[in-house]
Amino acid sequence: MTMLPHLRRLALSLLAACACAQATTPQEAMTAALAEWVAVQNDTTPSQVKTGPLDPRLPVQPCAGSFQFDYPFVSRDSVRVRCTKPAWQMFVKVGFVGSGTLPSPAPAPARSNAPPVAAAAAENRQAVVVAAAQLAPGQLLQPELLKLEKLDAEKVSKAHLLDVAGLDGHEVLRPIRAGEPLRSSDIRPATLVKKGELVSLSIGSPGSFLITVKLEAMQDGRLGEQIRMRNPDSGRTLTGTVTGRGAVRGG
User: pTM higher than 0.90, yes or no?
Assistant: First the structure.
């Protein structure tokens, strides 16, 4: 019979405290508490829980505070272990007796000058797109206005933008401070050509011959879209692809 949530939390705290008291090393204390937590989460016993080998680059530090555990991924083959005092975290592979061999941690690099905690933090960070300068609503995004910076992976959501590629031709919807991460809800494809305005239609290439004429846009257009234009003098209708603000290239 499954225990009620508050009873399970109480049992977990008591078991973890007992396991830590009997352990002789920081690693044994952490492993014992982890086994108790996994057992409670899966309605089994600690003796049925097995843990994978730890990364030799990241020795377990003493934890004067309390351990916190959670499943950070959909698959329950990894547990995130966090200590509250001092603050550190690591990921441990877990499984059950008879369920097969646990994956081994990645081999340690030949040399590393980073402290263990710093190395763990670096492995759990992800690059996101941030503003390189103050951005105003309606401002057209340019490569020099954006850059990539790393955040803690647990703070990155599906809404964050992860690559600056493909953001040309988009505009900002709200004020964004320099260094602030951009989300998909912060931008939208910009209308670079508006119906009724005069646009520059370019035909040819600078290397051979290039002709530029002013035509009237007959419809709105975003980057890469084809629009129709009209010659105000002759009334002739042409089509072209939007390449920038008020700029169209013909075939």
Answer: no
